[in-house]
Amino acid sequence: MSSRQPPPPSYPPGEGRQVLIVEDELRLREMLTRAVQEMGFSPTAAPNAEAALRLLDGRAFDILVVDLNLPGIGGLEFLEQARARWPATQAIILTGFGDLDAAKQAIRLDVADFLTKPAPLGELEVALDRARNRRLQVGSAEPARPHLPVHIAEAEEDDEDEGAGAPGGRALGEPTPSLEEMEQRHILAVLEKNHGNRTATAAELGISLRKLYYRLGQYQKQGLIP
Fold first, then answer.
1. Fold of domain 18-138
2. Which of 6, 38, 105, 210 satisfies CB 3.0 to 4.6 Å to 169 for a cystine?
3. Residues paired with residue 115 on neighbouring β-strands, in sequence order
4. Which residues lie closer than 8 Å to 148 by C-beta, 6 or more apart?
């Protein structure tokens, strides 16, 4: 069994830093969680809208980062429900389907930002700061709910909260990587942790062995691995 990372700092309610990430792809969900933590926020992750709604029923969140292309309840339908029930909570849409219709609906829902994949992490950081400022301006218009010291609250029974991320962050002036670069680093780090065992790496990443071989073939062409 792999050792768990220590939990990140827990920010108290009222600082506008409680972030709920709603993303169905496991690898991207873990990468976003680490990135959001390194940006000075307190992230919690959910694999679908249904799990996210249960989390929202149990505790207060300041910001939602939501993928539109979710299984079950779609991202926009989830945002409509969240907006109606928790109007002070701000939202950032992150999607690979950045078409005009989605943008129009996002504007109608008064989201803080609309980012398309693969978005540079610098853009996500700017969007989080904007959403936090909006949340603090709105103030606490909702009844207080219990604050739970939870980092990752996956609804999937067997998921583990291993993607807590490394402490620290990027140095000033360092270029912000894209989500694709974050994915490369994550895959290679898991491969190294498993001592090159590709079957174990694919299982831990939650992808097929065939897809892992394809990614590693790309990295070989780029000179990232021998």
1. Rossmann fold (3.40.50)
2. 38
3. 94
4. 58, 59
pLDDT (tens, 9 = 90+) of the chain, 226 residues, equals 444 444 545 555 558 899 999 999 898 899 999 999 999 999 999 999 999 999 999 999 999 999 988 989 999 899 999 999 999 999 999 877 656 677 677 777 888 888 887 778 888 999 999 999 999 987 654 433 433 333 333 433 334 344 334 333 444 344 555 556 767 777 888 888 888 888 888 877 767 777 788 888 888 888 888 7
Q: Tell me how far CA of residue 195 lies from CA of 111, 123, 200, 201, 216, in angstroms.
A: 43, 34, 9, 9, 15
Give me 97's structure tokens.
Answer: 């389907």
The hierarchical CATH code for the domain 179-221 is: 1.10.10.60
Structural tokens at position 149: 């010291």
**What residues does each domain of the chain span?**
18-138, 179-221
- Which residue, chain included where needed, has tokens 């174990």? 200
Q: Are 121 and 165 in contact (CB under 8 A)?
A: no
Polymer length in residues for the chain: 226
DSSP one-letter code for 123:
H
Cα torsion 98, 101, 105, 107: sign: positive
Residue with tokens 């290679």: 188
